[in-house]
Amino acid sequence: MKAIAVPALLLFLALGLELLIHGAASTSKHYIVYMGEHSHPNSDSVISANHEMLGSVTGSIDEVQAAVVCHYTKSFRGFSAMLTPEQAETIAASELVISVFESKTISLHTTHSWDFLGLNSFEQYNNLPMKAKSDVIVGVMDTGVWPELPSFSDEGLGPIPKRFKGECVVGESFTLKNCNRKLIGARFYHKGFEAENGPLESWNATFFRSARDTEGHGSHTASIVAGSLVPNASLFGIARGTARGGVPRVRLAIYKAWWFSQPSEADLLSAFEDAIDDGVDIISISAGPIPPQNGYFSDAISIGSFHAFRKGILVSASAGNTGLPGTVINVAPWILTTAASSIDRELNSNLFLGNSKTIKVIS
């Protein structure tokens, strides 16, 4: 019995190891397939060509439909799909493909703004022609917007520029009335995030399946760029003054691609596609990949910015908050990379102790 049991055990272990290796190799991940600009006549023909390429590795149309997550059909051609590493490698070998890379997490950034640059007087902007100020459209890609904030008031603004082709997409707690002559567009993207992380509802956190912001970062960055004047603003009575953006009279188009402070690169590319097609003048992104950054065409912000640049759209992106000293990201030559080497932000207050002593504190 012992002579039979040992080989049987070895056979069982060998089969188990083979299954483990095969299973690990076959695990699907979310990949982005980027193919550059295209000459297809319309979006339907691009999608059909994408399905044909994807079908060459999945084997059937049903598997194609199950695998595909996003299509990119306007400014550039590509798609994102759930693929095994072997399938991704096969597609990458095609001469039609520029790059295939796994969709990664992009972290949010933030820091101090216009006063630090010496732009401390709204009157500085009054010398600019009114029409030029109010017809510039800035697309902000972030966590969304809280439209009721006074920073997004449209008081004093004229009609929405006719060249803008964007939409105010309705969703949870976000209606057409939440857009105005200041917030002229709002979109949101979640297919990529849910493909990688499961349904939004499974996160056990507050969210709105719409462009509404529950994290604050998107509302913050949008107001830094173009917030309307808000007199007598303060943080619980500290730093009281008039809050405003860099150019308070420009228009905003919001592209929400972040959920729970992390986006899918696939969703971010969808946001770029729409922003370019909508006709924004500037795209602002206060976020970037976790260092070290991949090559230009294996990075969603670099790819999207390249095609925006080709259409005459300026992309301004932050240089990052993490990494070794001197580390920067978003450094593609077609991106305006912004950073500060120091800050002067201080909030001064008094801390009252139980022994009746008072300590001055700075944060």
From TrEMBL:
<keyword id="KW-0378">Hydrolase</keyword>
<keyword id="KW-0732">Signal</keyword>
<dbReference type="Pfam" id="PF00082">
    <property type="entry name" value="Peptidase_S8"/>
</dbReference>
<dbReference type="Pfam" id="PF05922">
    <property type="entry name" value="Inhibitor_I9"/>
</dbReference>
<dbReference type="GO" id="GO:0006508">
    <property type="term" value="P:proteolysis"/>
</dbReference>
<dbReference type="InterPro" id="IPR000209">
    <property type="entry name" value="Peptidase_S8/S53_dom"/>
</dbReference>
<dbReference type="InterPro" id="IPR010259">
    <property type="entry name" value="S8pro/Inhibitor_I9"/>
</dbReference>
<protein>
    <submittedName>
        <fullName>Uncharacterized protein</fullName>
    </submittedName>
</protein>
<comment type="similarity">
    <text>Belongs to the peptidase S8 family.</text>
</comment>
<feature type="domain" description="Inhibitor I9">
    <location>
        <begin position="31"/>
        <end position="109"/>
    </location>
</feature>
<dbReference type="InterPro" id="IPR037045">
    <property type="entry name" value="S8pro/Inhibitor_I9_sf"/>
</dbReference>
<feature type="signal peptide">
    <location>
        <begin position="1"/>
        <end position="26"/>
    </location>
</feature>
<dbReference type="InterPro" id="IPR036852">
    <property type="entry name" value="Peptidase_S8/S53_dom_sf"/>
</dbReference>
<dbReference type="InterPro" id="IPR034197">
    <property type="entry name" value="Peptidases_S8_3"/>
</dbReference>
<dbReference type="GO" id="GO:0004252">
    <property type="term" value="F:serine-type endopeptidase activity"/>
</dbReference>
<dbReference type="InterPro" id="IPR045051">
    <property type="entry name" value="SBT"/>
</dbReference>
<feature type="domain" description="Peptidase S8/S53">
    <location>
        <begin position="134"/>
        <end position="324"/>
    </location>
</feature>
<keyword id="KW-0645">Protease</keyword>
<keyword id="KW-0720">Serine protease</keyword>
